[in-house]
Amino acid sequence: MMFRRLKKAIRRHYRPVLTGRAGGSNRIVGVIRFSVPLLTGFVKTPADIAAARAFLYDPERLERRFHWFERLTLPSLIAQTDGDFQLGVVIGEDLPAPWRDRLHEALRPLPGAFIRTTEPVTNYRATHDTFIAAKLWGAHHLTSFRLDDDDAMDRHFIGRLRRQADMMLALDPSRPVAIAQNRGFFLIRNPEGNDILNVTENQPGSCGTAMVASMAQDLSVYIENHRWLPRRFSTLSDTESPAFIRVVHGDNDSRPTVSGRHWRTEPDQTDKALRRAFGLGLTHFKGL
Questions:
Q1: Of 3, 23, 44, 243, whose CB neighbour count within 10 A is largest?
Q2: Distance of CA 118 to CAs 37, 100, 227, 265, Å?
């Protein structure tokens, strides 16, 4: 309701200045870091690059990462009701060939997906270079979003992000702004059946947080830790729509915590909410 009222108010008082459609001046691009050795940006990954490669490229670990990427993250992006976006997956230049080939094959069903390799550099250098490697010809603005390779966004995420970005651009196209999807689910991995929590975050989370900025400003969402973005940029927080599934398991780089509140609902309520947002029910997610 809040966003509908805001949208009506903007239309009454402002002439639309940008369009987000294909070929328009605001492009939506996401970047996922896939087991990439970098100098900064991670907690558990060893600082020494040789040790980081050994850790990140361990076959058992990579198999677990592909489990979530192929069964949760990628299907959620393929299912988007608005497919007008690009996705860059940044990998290390030395990711072993079998895994690189598997990643290429996994991304085939997603139009606009591309892989970019990087040498060990800072987190922002690797991710920002991936954003600007997208097809941005003619763009005045970039809406960049982040996502981890084991999390998922609801199927209306891109369409909602486009509307949110257009509203912010109509208010002031010269000011960078962050956009956070702060309501969703934590999927807690358990051998006996995964647990599903409803969550509402107080701070921008790692799932789908975005930044809208002009191309001249040369900014993208990884410029700050996602939770610190409101310290530096005006931030729009959406708590109306269950927008994400964040997976909690032994391979998380940091310890997942809820910055706001969490609660459980009856299984039938959770099932309905998951089906509305992701097109799949509770049984599916409990069995992943």
A1: 243
A2: 9, 13, 25, 43
Which parts of 133-286 fold into alpha helices (H)? Answer: 157-171, 229-232, 267-278, 282-286
Query: Per residue in 181-195, pLDDT tens?
Result: 999 999 999 888 899
Q: Are 207 and 228 in contact (CB under 8 A)?
A: no
pTM above 0.85, yes or no: yes
Query: Residue 63 CB: number of other CB atoms within 10 A?
Result: 11
230 CB-contact burial (10 Å; exposed 0-12 / middle 13-18 / buried 19+) = middle
**For the segment 57-100, what is each residue's pLDDT rounded down to a tens digit?**
999 999 999 999 999 999 999 999 999 999 999 999 999 999 99
How is residue 55 written in tokens? Answer: 């850790």
In whole angstroms, give the CA distance from residue 67 to residue 93.
Answer: 22
- Calculate the dihedral angle through the C-alpha atoms of 27, 32, 38, 41, rounding to the nearest 10 degrees: 90
d(C-alpha 143, C-alpha 28), whole Å: 5
Helix (H) or strand (E) holding 21: none
CA angle (219, 222, 223) in 5-degree steps: 55
Q: What is the mean pLDDT of the chain?
A: 90
The number of helix segments (H) and strand segments (E) in the chain equals 10, 12
- Yes or no: say if 143 and 26 are a contact pair by the CB < 8 Å rule: yes
Cα–Cα distances (Å) from 27 to 68, 83, 142, 212, 218, in that order, read 27, 12, 5, 9, 13
Average pLDDT over residues 154-180: 97
